[in-house]
Design brief:
Layout lengths: L9 E5 L5 H13 L4 E5 L1 H11 L8 H9 L17 E5 L16 E7 L1 H8 L6 H11 L4 E5 L6 H13 L2 E2 L13 H16 L21
Parallel strand pairs: 1-2, 1-4, 2-3, 4-5, 5-6
Helix pairs in contact: 1-7, 4-5, 4-6
Length: 223
């Protein structure tokens, strides 16, 4: 099928690492910014979403399940933002003939949030074992922005070498590491900081966290 050049989405890949609230925050912010989104949820990520939210994510009910997922905050409380999930095109992870599998399919770039070490290895080695990994490989070869929000600790030498390979290939390696200077007073604030930094790396405007302005309220405080 020939892709329409009028629609240039951001691809969001969700792997099986813990941290699906990061993905939800990124998706909400992209929709709030009026961006089109192509969504790829790995098979392992479905299990993680179920474990972390209590709700399934199913190919045959993707929009229904996505709306339920995005209308809940990181602590399970309702979110005030009612997302227009019609702007999201869901592609099954097993569909290697999907649009994003080809470099001729027009996208702005890709964010993998969260990225498991298995996903990192697959992309770094060019395995393309599913649509998520294949799309990331295409993103790199087409020299489009790729943000990899790795969520694992500690990191062993093998994973570190894979991350260096991704950096060498042009990806932005962004550990899911929240900061506290932004005045976070809840789990959602910390989640939003990581999601916001991922969007910063992709060049997408947002208002997810309070930015550092260089003024110290306490002279003993350090950045």
């Amino acid at each position: 099928m020939t892709a329409s050049t009028d629609r240039r989405p951001w691809v969001v890949g969700v792997s099986g690492a813990s941290g699906t609230p990061y993905a939800a925050a990124v998706l909400r912010a992209l929709l709030h910014a009026g961006e089109a989104v192509d969504l790829i949820v790995s098979r392992a990520a479905r299990l993680t979403i179920l474990d972390e939210t209590g709700h399934p994510f199913r190919d045959g009910h993707a929009q229904e399940d996505l709306r339920r997922w995005l209308t809940r905050g990181a602590d399970g409380t309702p979110d005030a933002f009612d997302p227009d999930v019609s702007a999201v095109r869901h592609w099954p992870a097993g569909d290697l003939a999907a649009g994003p599998s080809s470099g001729s399919y027009p996208v702005k770039g890709m964010l993998i949030v969260p990225a498991s070490t298995a996903c990192v290895a697959g992309v770094a080695l060019g395995l393309s074992k599913d649509l998520l990994q294949r799309t990331a490989s295409v993103t790199l070869k087409e020299r489009r922005p790729l943000v990899v929000a790795v969520r694992e600790t500690p990191l062993n030498g093998q994973t570190l070498r894979h991350l260096v390979s991704l950096d060498d290939a042009g990806a932005v390696v962004l550990p899911a590491s929240p900061a506290f200077y932004a005045g976070g007073s809840s789990v959602q604030h910390l989640v939003d900081f990581v999601a916001g930094r991922a969007l910063d790396a992709a060049g997408v405007p947002h208002k997810l966290y309070r930015r550092w302005e260089g003024e110290l309220a306490d002279p003993d405080r350090r950045a």
